Amino acid sequence: MQGKYRALWLNDDNFLEVIDQTKLPFEYETKVLKTTDEVVEAIKDMTVRGAGVIGSVAAFGIYTASMEVDGGYEKLKEKASHIRESRPTAVNLMWAVDKMMELLKDSTDLVGDSKAYAIKLNDEEALESQKIARFGCDIIEDILKQKNKTKINILTHCNAGWLAVIDEGTALAPIYEAQKRGIDVHVWVDETRPRNQGASLTAWELTQSGINHTIIADNTGGHLMQNGMVDMVITGADRISANGDVANKIGTYLKALAAEDNGVPFYVAIPASTFDFDIRDGVKEIPIELRSEDEVKYMRGVDSDGVVREVLVTPKDSPAINYGFDVTPARLITGLITNKGVCEADFDKIREKFNNH
């Protein structure tokens, strides 16, 4: 830790360097973000993605911005607003920016203090990820005991590993912990159209760790649950309302419905920074990002000559719509796996567990 994390780090020149997730799984490249505009663009174009990592980058983005404003807090506020507005759904982004600006309001050394605060914030997030891993893996062990099984099949949607949340992830953190505990775990990996974060990022991460997994089309999960091939579902989240409604990558709601219909436990793993206590009804109030239709109409891959290409997969003149997220109502969620333990997706239970956060 201390400014060095798996998905992002301060390099030897004290600039933020990140893994370019748009290049994975075919190429491993990094980007150095030296300006506020570069930080904002990296968040917008999904060079970095995943609610936690967006927040992490935003925190270091304030540090980056502080080097551009000659010690002026009011000027820093303008740049902070620019970072804060780069994407609308993942609340970790807003939380990180607001937290940094609150800490810096009386600073006489914006550059030095912002760097120190960003490192502290990210170190704390990394420690939360480790706790999520342990609490989530305890659930895995309980399910194995209940079913008298030695192997567990877990379905996940989108990417919520260390590329998305430093430094172990959220949804994948219990899976990594299960591997450490010697549990035989297999992961069903939703491809997660249209950006294919599951097929490209989750599968890449699991491959790096040698974890048994199978990529499936997004519409396969219900069939697997119906036929007893899924023991539990774990996803991450981009925002959770005070009453426990969960905004996550588009398609999550459908998995929750299938899980409910087939008696499959459905868990959501999150750091505390993902809660938005100002929102009481997630379905009605959480803003849903509408992204470019080109993400639906074009796909990226490697051709037979080994060249990475982007290809059109729809009629050129057909319109498309691209909602980035959906909201899963609290009633469909078995539990929230947090750094403070497992919590029911319920207003009173959430308030009781996180009232001092």
In CATH, the architecture of the largest domain is: 3-Layer(aba) Sandwich
Large-scale geometry: globular
The whole-number mean of residue pLDDT values reads: 93
Strands of the biggest beta sheet: in what spatial order? 6-5-4-7-10-15-16
The CATH homologous superfamily of the largest domain is named Translation initiation factor eif-2b, domain 2
The tally of domains stands at 2
CATH topology title of the largest domain: Rossmann fold
β-strand percent reads: 15-25%
The main pleated sheet reads as: 7 strands, mixed
> Which structural category do the helix and sheet elements fall into?
alpha/beta
Query: In whole angstroms, how far apart are the ends?
Result: 23 Å
Percent helix, as a range, is 40-55%
Low-pLDDT runs of 5+ residues are none
Task: Supply Rg.
Answer: 20 Å
CATH class of the largest domain: Alpha Beta
Structure summary, number of beta strands: 16
Q: What's the SSE pattern?
A: EEEHHHHHEHEHEHEEEHEEHHEEEEEH
Q: Count every helix, treating DSSP H or I runs of 4 or more residues as helices.
A: 12
Structural write-up:
With 357 residues, the protein is α/β, with parallel strands linked by helices. It has two domains: 8-125, Up-down Bundle (Four Helix Bundle (Hemerythrin (Met), subunit A)); 133-354, Translation initiation factor eif-2b, domain 2 (Rossmann fold, 3-Layer(aba) Sandwich). Helices cover 40% and strands 19% of the residues. The strands form four sheets. It has a seven-stranded mixed beta sheet with strand order 6-5-4-7-10-15-16, sandwiched between helices. β15 and β16 form a beta hairpin. The longest helix is centred in the middle third of the chain and has 38 residues, at 110-147. It is globular, with a radius of gyration of 20 Å.
